[in-house]
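> tool_call: predict_assembly(chains=two)
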Amino acid sequence: MTLMGYANRVARVDLTHGSVAYEGINPEDARKYIGARGLGVKYVFDNGPQVEPLSPENILCFVNGPLTGSAMNMSGRLAVCTKSPLTGTVTDSHMGGWSAARLRWAGFDAVIFGGKAEKPVYALAENGQITLHDASDLWGLTTRETVRILQARHGGNGVSVMAIGPAGENLVRFAGIINENDRASGRGGTGAVMGCKHLKALVAVGEIAAQWKPAPEQKAAVEAARKQGLKAIMDGGLTAPRKGGLSLYGTNVLMNIVNEIGALGTKNSQLSCHDQAELIAGEAIREKWLVDEPTCHACPVACKKEVEIQEGQYAGLRTESFEYETAWALGVNCGHADVPAIAKLLDQCNDYGIDTIELGNVFSMAMEATEKGFLKEGISWAETERMVKLTEEIAAVASPLGRIFARGAAGAAAELGCPELAMSVKGQAIPAYDPRGIKGIGLGYATSNRGACHLRGYTVASEVAGIPFQTDRKVPEGKGELLKVFQDLFAFSDSLDLCKFSSFSMGAKEYADMFTAVTGLPMTADVVMRTGERIYNLERYFNNLAGLREGSDTLPKRFLTEPAVGGSAGLVSELDLMLKEYYTARGWVEGVVPEAKLIELEILPAASAEVAAAGPEDGGAPAAK
Amino acid sequence: MKIRLYATLRPLAGGKHAEVPAEPGTTVRTVLERLIELHPALAGELLTADGRALLAHVQIFVGGQSVRHLQGLDTELDGAADLAIFPPVAGG
């Protein structure tokens, strides 16, 4: 069967033996799981939920979607999928920029790494072939140094390099993978898995001339779908280039409104607003610090914001992207609104290959632990120079504190004897929304299949921004069903792989039209949601089999028992109420997917003799094959 | 009454703040009409063409509370309250 739109080429790289095997995409998997996140999760699932994350047996998948590298708007992303060393769950972490497109133009839908190289290597993807090369000279270098050397070696600025820095090499549990545009596969510790495999980088050499081109009979439909998406973006109050709030101020357009409503976690979420938050908000960044606004392949929005520091000890520093999450995590979450310090820490994270959200939460946890006496000679609130120094030590795992903090907020808090101070779910730290003040996102953190995450189901769009319709952020009722819709829709768009922000202008119909135009496969808005549901359930099934079962969908105690202050004063998260509604909407039993649901969604065949009989009566997930 | 403006509203109003007269009991609708009189560039950014409803995705807060969950444009204001107005904003 010909799969239109796909390269129909997947490389399986055995790093232990230095060999590469090639295969196509199973058409049935393409139908059921689409690509990128969905297909990557399927590869990780098939590899086995019991695998130890930091072992040669784990696999690391770089997976494009069927739209990647095409002219479809906001399609310049890929998913990195693996079993996370931070959470023990399946994880997918997406990067933008040009890497996804170039990997596709190099001839690949996916490159899957297994095993472990004896010595450091990097992989080169070019003309449909993967070759492995010695990376001994690159080991120990930062991501930017690695990018510079490998671009010079393989063709210059038009070459993509997805690299780890020292943090990944040293198995920091929240190490990420950074590309030549400073875009990150940030969350979940994908960089540590890469480091464990002694894989320094994946280099993609691909020219736009190799871009997928529609057959003559497809051209009209492809162009119509592209224009439909473009019109939605251009007309969108948020996304309109050079006019909408997201385009002008980036993601950090959120800082002021989230502070206004009292949902901006401050000082490790002891407070929920900060009187100086405006200093680090998108408006202030645009007015004082902004120097460039780069964008990703096929995206007219240009939400990335590059800053230059003009004063103080970090004068001359240029770095990107000054995102909302980063400014929150490393700024007000740690008790300060110091733009140069945040920029310095962001720059370090890009250089060393570190997730800014987890790092900020490590520091805020340590600051509260110091304040409360759990950590002697630790770190105080707003102690930015010490944050910079400790970031070096974490990346290098080079000091007692660096070693502890390299485990992430939850791991470090446990080691310090104060696990309740980690604002984490399933081992991954929370993003920049206090779940007491925005009810649905709290449920989203609790039920995310990759640990605390706002991007699995971004109910903030509805609860704060009124997109696609307004719900009341303070009301828990209805949030279970609302979240399910967001989670399923995003599971599909992540599998195309479209930027999350496309959902501010587009919806299931536009996604379906683009998919059908490119692949020729039938798709409707209903099937979009059904497919997203299937992917979400496959992830949950993986996690159930990996040991995450009843009771694992929860929030830090603080959010359940300590009332918020500020615009959300007095609120706590009514998680139990929302979970009950959510599980009903999902058809799950206490967080576990029943066999009947797996069959209904075609994850398991209807009459599989190989499937264990643990059924919905006891809430047990069927055993893996 | 002091009004705080954010994001894309600032260049249209020429600054972060605006001040309009508002006696106790003035509604949000009246305050917005006075604001638009003061800064005509804001017309079309806040209210529907017929002036009867807030535009979709525009958020107005009084003391951190969204007027959408109070009495909407008919919400009456304490003369001392300050108002925060946001155009469509979201990110991630």
